[in-house]
Amino acid sequence: MEFEGKAWVFGDNINTDIISPPQYMELSIEEAAAYSMQAVHETFAKQVGEGDIFIAAHNLGSGSSRETSPLTLKYLGIKVVVAKSFARIFYRNCINLGIPAIECPDWDGISEGDQVSIDVEKGELLNLTRNTRFKCSKLPDNIMQMIAAGGLVNYLKTIKGE
């Protein structure tokens, strides 16, 4: 499974309240998505496009356990999330929603706007703009099956024969 898109690059400690601000929790995901990342990148939600790739440094997704943060990213068109390290519950929420969450501890040299490609089965991130390559974690086959099905709920339906 490969993904290619524009890189959106963020630093350390991008928490769930930054990704999906809690003051908009009562709105639908579609409405709340307009405020995603506003605290650190005012125009992110307006500029992010279908297939873009979200890249962050350490401790991505710390904070609350609610699924709204990865769901917001998915709604905005993010197809894969890459980080040097993840908060475990955010990582699992991404997987449960069908978003590959890839650990890539040494992606330095990727800038916002670079065109990148990631092969989640090989565990390889390519910066197509700068012609550089980075080794990343590989997702196990059972997780890949879940992602291919569109997330945990859809995966469970397929194995139950629904």
Describe the structure.
The chain has seven helices and seven strands, in the order E-H-H-H-E-H-E-H-E-E-E-E-H-H. It has 162 residues and is of the alpha/beta class. It has a single domain (2-160), classed as Aconitase, domain 4, CATH 3.20.19. It has a seven-stranded mixed β-sheet with strand order 4-3-2-1-5-6-7. Helix 6 packs across helix 7. The longest helix is centred in the middle third of the chain and has 9 residues, at 68-76.
What overall form do the CA principal axes indicate? Answer: globular
The overall pLDDT average reads 95
Largest sheet: 7 strands, mixed
Q: Provide the succession of SSEs.
A: EHHHEHEHEEEEHH
Strand share of the residues? 15-25%
Level-2 CATH architecture: Alpha-Beta Barrel
How many runs of DSSP E, i.e. beta strands? 7
CATH superfamily: Aconitase, domain 4
CATH topology title: Aconitase, domain 4
**Distance between the first and last residues' Cα:** 24 Å
Brief characterization of the structure:
This protein has helices at 16-19, 29-32, 44-47, 68-76, 88-96, 141-148, 152-160; strands at residues 2-9, 53-56, 80-83, 101-103, 115-119, 124-127, 132-135.
Properties at a glance:
single chain, 162 residues, alpha/beta, seven-stranded mixed sheet, 7 helices, 3-isopropylmalate dehydratase activity, IPMI_Swivel, leucine biosynthesis, 3-isopropylmalate dehydratase small subunit
Give me the secondary-structure topology.
Layout lengths: L1 E8 L6 H4 L9 H4 L11 H4 L5 E4 L11 H9 L3 E4 L4 H9 L4 E3 L11 E5 L4 E4 L4 E4 L5 H8 L3 H9 L2
Helix pairs in contact: 6-7
